[in-house]
Amino acid sequence: MHKVLDHIDRQLDKPLDLESLAEVAHFSPFHFHRLFAAWMGETLGDYLRRRRVEVAAMRLSSQPRLSVLTAAISVGFGSGEAFTRAFKTRFGCSPTTWRKQNSHRRGANRNSDQVNSKHGQDTLHAQFQYGISTNTQPETPMEVTLVDRAPAFVAYQRHTGPYGTPLSLFWQQTIYPWLRENALLEQARYGISHDDPSITEPDRCRYDACVEVPPLFKASRSVLTATIPGGRYAVLRFKGTAGEIGEAWNSLLRDWLPSSGLQLDARPCFEYYSKESSHDAQTGVFDCDICIPVAPL
Q1: Which is it for strands 231-240 and 206-212: parallel, antiparallel or unpaired?
Q2: pLDDT tens, 17-52?
């Protein structure tokens, strides 16, 4: 089912029917339709409409020069009218009105609790590294660089639900004991947030806690494996506290991306914690790379 959701995100601009998605899941269309609804809590058709509209909303928010029609076509709508109807059903207003309202909200409150809560796991995540930083001052300014990353094979566990404190508990109670039991504490880690909590309902937000593993790694039943795509990423080197990283994400997507001449593509955004990542237990300062996938406009 995770492969199906990943396939949907990568093919949003194309027709997606029951038969082709059932084939991805290796189920018959009849059984896949029933299993999808039971697993996701919504029908396949409802999920596709919601995902298309929410991804379009994220693109409209991060790309001020993107036209509503282009956003609609990029997520598989055949016309601006159909997209506007679906958008109003989901958000209660037109795409143009939503974009203006969202821009005003972000400008008025750059430290939105909703955005910052997305990264509540970061301090706990950084504590899992063995290294301790001796430099407790955040690095300013933090420059964005374009990096060609190689694909990374990872083992992961998924959390579905609100970000923030629940993610901290997820890392502490579920991920850390599993890393220790499998001698993976010194491996590089990733935190992938698949949804924007300011757009997607909290109980539907998906997050993957990942660790790099060898190609022949044998995952247990509760752990899945995947490959984080390689390619061109815009990378913001972050050093600071959990309370500051939300604003770093916000600035990268809100301020840097619109003026970069680039756009997000279908690959996931993530935080990368290398083997050398450090954490100062006294100050709460840690470091990581904030990575967003980019492509030419």
Answers
A1: unpaired
A2: 999 999 999 999 989 999 999 989 999 999 999 999
Give the span between the Cα atoms of 106 and 110, in whole angstroms: 5
Of 133, 138, 148, nearest in space to 235 by CA: 148
How far apart, in whole angstroms, are the C-alpha atoms of residue 41 and residue 133? 44
Residue reference for tokens 């109980």: 203
Has this prediction a pTM greater than 0.85?
no
| Residues in the chain, total | 297
Contact 52, 67 (CB under 8 A): no
Please give the radius of gyration of the chain, using alpha carbons only, rounded to the nearest integer: 19
Specify the 3-state DSSP secondary structure of 21. helix
Query: What residues pair up with 249 in beta bridges, in sequence order?
Result: none
Q: What is the pLDDT of residues 218-259, one digit of tens each?
A: 887 789 999 999 999 999 999 988 778 878 888 898 889 888
